[in-house]
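Quick question: what would this complex look like in 3D?
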Amino acid sequence: MPRIQILNRVLASNDALAEEHRKQFDNEKITAINIMSAPGSGKTALIEKTVAELKKKVGIFVIEGDIKGDLDAQRVIKAGGKVYQINTDGACHLDAFMLSQVLPKIDYKKIDLLLIENVGNLVCPAEFNLGTHYNVMLLSTPEGADKPAKYPLMFSKADLLIINKIDLKPYVNFDFKALEKSLKIIRPSLEIIKVSCKTGKGLPDWYKWLLNRIPQIANRTPLNSGKRRAHSG
Amino acid sequence: MPRIQILNRVLASNDALAEEHRKQFDNEKITAINIMSAPGSGKTALIEKTVAELKKKVGIFVIEGDIKGDLDAQRVIKAGGKVYQINTDGACHLDAFMLSQVLPKIDYKKIDLLLIENVGNLVCPAEFNLGTHYNVMLLSTPEGADKPAKYPLMFSKADLLIINKIDLKPYVNFDFKALEKSLKIIRPSLEIIKVSCKTGKGLPDWYKWLLNRIPQIANRTPLNSGKRRAHSG
């Protein structure tokens, strides 16, 4: 099967480069987060809120991954963020090679936290390790609770699942118990935070989670133990 | 660039096989529709409603494409549909080769309409021609109106855009004018039908569109001219 052999080779060389990125993040004391979801789940809205809330406490840099255009980057700039845009030019995911084009431009000395918004896609981004410490994925209530069973890889690689758009829950059939049941099989230890980026509900839990993952911040504020654990991807 | 050469070869052989499928559909007088969208936009809900409404007038067969499992196929069966499930086993789209595994099992004599639900993904499925006559894509209001600019290929290949979940419009920021503006650049002639699969609003327009694309049905009912035009994909 030559196609599969080639894919494996591509993934292996991607992993090797991701490992280099990871070493660089560690050396520079950067916590790097890969944010993934289907299109329209609210990744950019989450980043906008996070930048606006935390930019005075934390040095944040954002990388926006989009097939085309810079709509999301413009939104992050408006929220007060510093951002580089990667256009994948048709590709359905970010990979470690694309990241290599952008990382040398970042002034690490000013940064504690690197947020990378992947291409909106519940399938392919999960296959490509970027070297980040954590995979954070979003699922919004209108998408439905059946997604882990149908897109298991993404959920199996997530370190945190953010359920967004909980303000819409009264109007959509989102079966939270069914979600928990299927996650028990695919990713039993997956932490879940419920938020509405629109109303702001639940966002403090996300900020706390995030700050706890930045050792230099967690150690100087009275937050819970901010253990930095290995990235699962 | 060997990766790109290989991708082009894969797409060329996929296109050749899709052409064979198309000839078979034409010989058997089947109208075949490729239904695509992001995860959770409502493809299965649309198929459920369509099967329940039209199964007495039209011979319908459904092919369900999912990475894993048969949740959607079970829903279509409950709605009274006949269905085959394709599991892509990780792949992010259906292709003409996967379809070849299933098409020989279909009894074409009983069928006028073949509905194919692609994997929920706003990127990759648009690259793989299945030999269908029409690409129907869904966008649901909670996903936002910025999607054509960010995922142009899928929109550029669509013959019909169904805006689903219009019942949620009062609760989400869906800028219909911005959508129309970006579609004017990417796909100026794209027909749009607004529906709510939940309330049923707008669905009669979709049924009419569909029946008009089945020549043997359109010719015997007093519907508008049901010209069958070339698939753009």
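Answer marked as accepted. Strands of chain B lie at 31-36, 60-66, 83-87, 113-117, 134-140, 160-164, 191-194.
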